[in-house]
Amino acid sequence: MNPVSFRSVSKSYPIYSKPAHRLAELVTLNRIKRHDDYWALRDVDFEVEPGSVFCLVGENGSGKSTTLQLAAGIFPATTGEVEVNGRLSALLELGAGFNPEFSGRDNVFLAGAVQGLSSQEIRRRYSDIEQFAEIGDFINQPVKTYSSGMLVRLAFAVAINVDPEILLVDEALAVGDFYFRQRCMRKVHELRSRGVTILFVSHATADVKAIGTDCLWLEKGRVVEKGKPDVVIRNYLARMNEKDMGYRAARSESSLDAGRATLLAPEIVETIPNVDHRHGNGDAEVIGIAALDENGVVVPMLEPSRVLIIRISVRAKQPIERPNVGFMMRNHLGMDFAGTNTDREDVRLEPMQPGDIATVDFHLRLPELYPGHFSFSPAVANGDHLHYEMCDWVENALALEMAHEGKPVYGYLHLPCQIRVNSRLNAGPAIPE
Questions:
Q1: Using alpha carbons only, how large is the chain's radius of gyration in Å?
Q2: CA 415: distance to chain centroid?
Q3: Do 71 and 148 fall within a single domain?
């Protein structure tokens, strides 16, 4: 018997155009329907095996949270059957189940009582909850005074310390700081090793691939794909990339129709997906950045040992005697991870006049990096890598996620390695080329 089963489950919510229609529907004898049905889920089927980490992914509004709420028994399915077997603990909406007027300590005892624990059992676990939450003296203050980070710390500490057989986690960890999220991920691994079944909703696809054993992709309330996280996440990110490209193409067509754009050569990229900040003297500008494979196809994510092409297009606005184009790669903490530029690679670009456009392709072969998001910040300068004037620097213009190969990455990256036991050092090359 599986811990969680969904069989042809659908869930609809009534949508009223006016508040009066809700009241009229309740009091009229003929029960005339005065609402529209919004179907949050449609014919969802899945089985969660014992001890697995079952992850749900999808865009906002795809039905992920509704799925967990049905599993938690917060409300019933409209049609179909939801079956849950085992003690369940849920970390759903931020602060759900907490009384804002009560102190953190009082809410711990309240949540434990709701889970069926006696006061003695709660007192025995209280110190573990307090230590894991790490909110100090605030645990004796009203919950309404907590920040969102403090609230999720306490809620997660309670959820994992009531001996759940099934744990539901719905994106709440996203508001936690990096240190706490790392502790939570380690705790999830620990619970999984103890046989706890976990249903996990997150937009952090790196987390899904790192901890998930199975993955369900929802779109507009329907199941798109079920399977192993690596496969499902790859297809999901590809779909999101296609959607983003369609959106950008529509905007470009709109600009052309308005007469604000000109026809450009196909090797030029004119899109900058994100601009956190940009600076420089403005003599030249970055007009686009893209990540491509060897065939010139946009890649949805980074893959180890594959050729990655970072394409950067720049336009001169003033005469540039010695153009220097490059980029900086950063990890999810904003730390400079790696970078290069044309001058560093001994490539001398021709001088540029106002209006000239140059496109530079950086061909890289990435090692296996730890699962996480990495950003690329393109730049164009005038001068060599020691003496230059920055023309334009675009912070975090492009972000991509590193694919997870299944094996752990210790530290930041996995170095190509060949192991030989009890062999002579001069027996031949040991490091793979």
A1: 27
A2: 26
A3: yes
